[in-house]
Amino acid sequence: MGINGAPAIETLEDLRRHLQWAIELEHATIPPYLCALYSLEPGSNIEAAQVISSVFVEEMLHLALAANLLNAVGGEPRLDTPELLPAYPHALPHGDRSLQVRLAPFGPEALELFLSIERPATAQALPESDGYHTIGQFYVALELGLRTLVDTLGEEAVFCGDPNRQLNEMHFSSGGGQVIPVHDLKSALAALAEIVEQGEGAARTEVWDGEKDVFHPERDQVAHYYRFVELKQGRRFQPGDTPESGPTGEPIVFDPDRILPMRPNPRTTDYPEGSAVRLAQEEFNNTYCLLLYLLEDVFNGSPSQMRDALGAMYALKSQAQALMAMPSGDGLTTAGPTFEYVAPEDRA
Fold this sequence. Notes:
- The chain is mainly alpha-helical.
- It has helices spanning 12-28, 30-38, 46-72, 108-118, 135-153, 155-158, 185-200, 224-233, 276-299, 306-324, and strands spanning 90-91, 100-101, 208-212, 220-222.
- The strands form two sheets. It has a two-stranded antiparallel sheet with strand order 1-2. The chain has a two-stranded antiparallel ribbon with strand order 3-4.
- The longest helix has 27 residues, at 46-72.
- The radius of gyration is 20 Å and the shape is globular.
- Residues 1-6 have low confidence and may be disordered.
C-alpha cells in the first residue's frame, strides 16, 4: 500500500510514471556493474567477469522489458535525460534512500552494494508508493497497479499503446532471459516475472531463476542476488543448495591482485581541462550518452537502431578499459569512467 494505506497506482498516469521509474531503477545498476567489470584486468578473474557481465546484460534486458511495459500502456520511455545519470554517489532512485550507489572497482565494498541492490523482498513485503525498500517490492506495487487498473478500466483501455513499438529481441550472448512483447495483462505479468525472477530467484524462496546458465548450459542459472553471494563466498551453488545453506559447490578461482585500482566516484572536474584523463573521460561520457540516445530511439519505435547501440557498447568497453589503465595522478589509483550526463548540444 502507499502512504496512509492508499494504493500506489490508481490511474494510468500513475502507472506510466512508475514504469518510467522502473527504467530509471534498472538503469541505476548499470554504471556500477560496468565499473566493477572493467576494473578486472583483461584476461583475469574470468568467472567473476562472467558473473558481472551476465548480470549487466540481464539488466539491459530488464530495461527493454520496462520500456515494452511503458509503451504497452501508452507511455514514452525516456533514457536520454539527466535523471538517468545523477552525480555519484547517489541514492538508489525510488528505492532505499540509505543505499548509496557508488562507482568503484570490484571488491568487497562493490559486492556489498550489489547484494543490497538485488536483495530479495520478503514474501510478506507490502507494496509502497515510493521509496521502496527492495526492487522486488517496487515490482509488487506495479503488478498490483496493473491488475487493479485492468479490473477498473478494462484491458483495452490500459493496453492502449502502439504494438509496433514493442521490442522483440536483443542480440546479447552473455545473459539469460528473453524480451517479451507486451500487449495484454498476461504478457505484462510475464515481463514483470522475468525481471523479478532473474534478480531475486523464482518465488523469492529459491536460488535459481528458472533459466539455464549461458556460460555453463548444463547448470541452472542462479538469480542475480545469489550470483553475487557466490562471488562473496568464493563458491558456486549446486543442486540442493538453498538460500539458507548458501553455496556448497565448487570454489570460484579469484585473484584480488588482478583488479585495477580505480579511483572511486571519479569526476571530470578532478582533472584539468585538456588533460589526457579528462579528455578520455569526456569521450567516454559522449559515447555513453550516445548509447542512451540510441536506446531511447530503439524503445520509441526504431528497433533498427539496436545495431548502432551495440556498436556504442563495444566502444564503451575499450574506452573504459583504457581509463582503468591510466594513472589518476595520486600515485595509488587509476582513472575510471565518470558516467556524467552530457547535454545533446554539448556532445562531440
